[in-house]
Write a structure and sequence with these properties.
With 392 residues, this protein is of the alpha+beta class. The chain is built from 9 helices and 8 strands. 41% of the residues lie in helices and 14% in strands.
Length: 392
């Protein structure tokens, strides 16, 4: 392009004066100067203007970039301030919710009483002892070590830190069956307890809380705590606990033993046992299956004391808990309370179901009433009548 342009420039510069014929050197100088001049013009036209334009665009872009960075900085600062405000408000809201939750827990609304905390067996023992309720004793040793007589290499060695020293294990001396109970069991039977299921109306705020009740020892509170059923778990030979047992229904008033049954089908382990285990059990026992001794018709002495200790524990320790299943044992240390079970069942004992249904109905009705009162929305005014026809 430059060469063509130079040639054109040369032709344009020559005006046909004829000097080039007489002065070749002059023609050469003119051509050289024209070439330089045209080259400068070409370079200026080809590069100077675009470069200037780009420079201006670059300066404009830089100005815009500066403004954008400043805007981004302002937006970031504002966002940070907004987030800080939101965080502070969230913190205040959570603090309010936490305070309200604490207040609600402190008030112990309805029957969700702190008594449910006594499912912790250690807390239960301490609370019962404080209220002078006879419970199973415990040892105050710091650490208990148990090891097998023959195993070696660290096998068969177990160490238990006592709950009295901040551990998780309640270390207790073994207790043994005594009295009439022991005479009806095999010699190697586990400690066999009476499951005494009691019901309390003291969790109700309504007038029904003091109505009815004919339990063995509920004169002290007007019948608000009542025994629903009593079942003796006669342990089997060689069993570790009385979960392996025959369940004998016992009259809560006179201690007379009725027919026995079993709930071993409840304790079958394995993911497919529900396919092969029976859902119900129709087996009845009149004798103990290990000793063959007749048990149905026998009378358990001290039944009033057995029922009384359970009702007192319910009334004193967990009055606002509706139902508790207590484990009471006749031992060589006397009649003792082992623990309370806050999710329990009747163990197939005799129950006054009419009374029980009324009892449940009272709790549910009060619960529904409190729920409805808490969720009732303010009534909206009725919409105004449409009087457009009258206005016409």
């Amino acid at each position: 392009d430059v060469c063509v342009y130079v040639c054109v420039c040369v032709c344009v510069c020559c005006d046909g004066c004829g000097m080039c014929v007489s002065s070749p050197r002059d023609v050469s100088d003119i051509s050289r100067k024209s070439h330089k001049k045209s080259l400068k013009n070409s370079l200026r036209n080809m590069h100077a203007k675009p470069f200037t334009k780009k420079t201006k665009e670059h300066e404009i872009s830089r100005e815009h970039s500066g403004k954008n960075l400043e805007d981004i900085s302002n937006i970031s600062r504002k966002s940070h301030e907004n987030l800080a405000k939101i965080s502070q408000k969230s913190h205040e809201t959570l603090a309010k919710i936490s305070r309200k939750s604490h207040e609600n827990l402190t008030k112990t609304p309805y029957f969700m009483h702190a008594g449910y905390l006594l499912e912790d067996k250690w807390k239960f023992l301490l609370e019962a002892k404080e209220h002078k309720i006879p419970v199973t004793p415990w040892l105050d040793t710091g650490m208990m070590v148990v090891k097998h007589r023959n195993e070696e290499g660290g096998l068969g060695f177990y160490r238990y830190k006592n709950v009295t020293q901040g551990g998780n294990w309640i270390i207790q001396p073994a207790l043994h069956n005594a009295g009439d109970v022991a005479s009806l069991l095999p010699g190697d039977a586990p400690l066999s307890t009476f499951r005494v299921l009691t019901a309390s109306k003291l969790g109700l705020d309504s007038k029904m809380a003091g109505a009815g009740g004919d339990g063995g020892n509920d004169d002290e509170d007007g019948g608000s705590v009542r025994t629903l059923t009593t079942v003796w778990r006669a342990g089997r030979s060689g069993a570790t606990t009385d979960h392996v047992s025959v369940l004998f229904d016992v009259n809560k008033s006179n201690g007379k033993v009725n027919r026995g049954t079993t709930n071993q089908h409840w304790y079958q382990l394995g993911p497919f046992k529900w396919l092969t285990s029976p859902w119900t059990q129709d087996i009845q026992y009149h004798d103990h299956p290990d000793t063959k001794k007749k048990i149905k018709g026998k009378v358990i002495k001290g039944m009033k004391a057995i029922v009384g200790i359970a009702e007192k524990a319910h009334r004193v320790l967990v009055p606002r808990v509706p139902l508790v299943g207590w484990d009471v044992a006749v031992t060589d240390k006397g009649i003792l309370l082992l623990e309370g079970n806050f999710s329990c069942n009747f163990f197939m004992g005799t129950v006054d179901y009419d009374w029980y249904y009324d009892f449940c109905d009272a709790y549910f009705r009060e619960l529904w009433g409190k729920r409805d009162k808490a969720t009732t929305a303010p009534t909206m005014p009725a919409p105004a009548a449409d009087n457009r026809d009258e206005r016409k």
